[in-house]
Design brief:
Largest sheet: 4 strands, antiparallel
Helix content: under 10%
Strand order of the largest sheet: 3-4-6-5
Structural class: mainly beta
Distance between the termini: 17 Å
Strand content: over 45%
Order of helices and strands: EEEEEEEEEEEEEE
């Protein structure tokens, strides 16, 4: 990963850059031009030594450019529901199923949730796909909210 290295009061500080603005997770960002290539640093409210002002508002350049906010998938009604979720490259934990998945290509993935009745039990299924590639196909009996977090 490329880094923006800044000398602040005699100390070198490094801030990660990403090539894809979608990795920022919808946050404000700072565009850094490196020749013909644009890269992006994530801006946030967590204090760091590098401060920028954008649209008259103060932001801190974050050390880690990639941000993935926890995604919640409540199983409240029977049926199938599909969501397009952008996953940056990395490892993720899927609660309730206690599964870990690894994403090697940053992209939008289809997350499909299915709640059905299997005899007297509620059955929850979660399928994560990228085109025809199945990343995860999970099943559990019970009901609840599933969260996906970056680890």
């Amino acid at each position: 990963m490329a880094k923006l290295v800044v000398n602040i009061k005699g100390q070198s500080e490094e801030f990660g850059l990403t090539d894809d603005a979608r990795d920022i997770g919808g946050n404000d960002y700072l565009t850094v031009s490196n020749g013909n290539k644009k890269q992006y640093a994530r801006l946030g409210n967590n204090a760091t030594k590098l401060i920028v002002v954008k649209n008259k508002q103060k932001f801190y350049v974050q050390k880690e450019p990639v941000y993935f906010s926890e995604k919640l998938f409540p199983y409240q009604e029977r049926g199938q529901h599909s969501f397009d979720v952008y996953f940056p490259v990395g490892n993720y934990h899927i609660s309730i199923f206690e599964q870990k998945i690894s994403i090697s290509t940053a992209s939008f993935y289809k997350v499909t949730t299915i709640l059905s009745k299997n005899g007297f039990k509620n059955q929850m299924n979660m399928i994560i796909t990228n085109g025809s590639d199945v990343i995860a196909n999970l099943k559990i009996y019970g009901i609840g909210t599933v969260s996906i977090t970056k680890i």
